[in-house]
Design a protein that fits this description.
By secondary structure, the protein is an alpha+beta fold. Helices cover 31% and strands 27% of the residues. The protein is built from seven helices and twelve strands. The strands form four sheets. A five-stranded mixed sheet has the order 7-6-12-9-10, with helices on both faces. Strand 9 (171-182) and strand 10 (185-191) form a beta hairpin.
Length: 241
């Protein structure tokens, strides 16, 4: 769990650092500046970056997710199970089960078949997602409640910002950036949330591991302060991987 939080924190810090550099290079001391330093989203950027989740919008299990298994009249199988780094869970009597990429319904069906073949007749099995740690997004900047949020089902940029408490009083809706990993490379694109709200632009879908930053006057000052406190070479090592 600590490795997941640490990785997310490093990614968030790296994204903030890169945004700070973009803002500094653009000379964005005022509030009305161009987005030319950050490109608009290309079709490749808007596409689902991870094929594991492309075919089904339901949450698919991954490392560090926690599921609750309930088997009627079988307390030895019922309980909470954490998906390990290899995408597996350890079930009593059954042993290791590969669950990465499964939905909770698919896992329940798999368990039902295994138990019916060895231990029970028509077992009643249910599986619920208790903690979502493998599919998360980070929403930062000029929002009400910056932080990490679980991504369950299809979520758009507007929905993600709303989940983080909405935009703050000093936010710049014309400049919202998303950092995304595509084919192992960190990419960034700018979006105009004001135009999206007015239905003048499409509301893009966000994906697991995205980092969303809403620009704002307080955000820019904090980024500049942070950027000036550390050597430039040391800043980018946690970000580029």
């Amino acid at each position: 769990m600590s490795s997941v939080v640490g990785s997310a924190a490093r990614a968030r810090a790296g994204a903030l650092i890169l945004l700070a550099l973009c803002l500094a290079l653009a000379g964005c001391a005022g509030t009305n500046y161009s987005r030319a330093d950050i490109p608009a989203a290309s079709p490749e950027f808007l596409a689902q970056p991870d094929q594991l989740f492309a075919d089904n919008r339901d949450h698919r299990l991954g490392p560090s997710d926690l599921v609750t298994v309930a088997v009627y009249r079988a307390p030895e199988f019922s309980g909470d199970y954490r998906v390990d780094a290899a995408g597996q869970i350890m079930m009593p009597l059954i042993g290791l089960m590969e669950v990465q990429g499964m939905t909770t319904i698919e896992l329940a069906n798999d368990l039902r078949q295994r138990l019916a073949g060895q231990y029970y007749v028509n077992p009643d099995v249910s599986v619920a997602l208790k903690e979502s740690n493998s599919q998360r997004i980070v929403v930062d900047g000029a929002v009400g409640s910056p932080g990490q949020y679980p991504l369950v089902g299809r979520t758009t940029l507007m929905e993600a910002v709303a989940r983080a408490g909405g935009v703050g009083p000093n936010s710049n809706l014309r400049r919202v950036v998303i950092f995304r990993t595509i084919d192992g490379q960190r990419m960034v694109a700018a979006f105009d949330l004001a135009s999206i709200r007015e239905a003048q632009a499409d509301d893009p879908e966000v994906f697991a591991q995205d980092i969303i930053i809403v620009d704002g006057s307080q955000t820019r000052q904090a980024l500049r302060d942070f950027f000036q406190t550390l050597p430039i070479l040391g800043l980018f090592r946690p970000f580029f991987f």
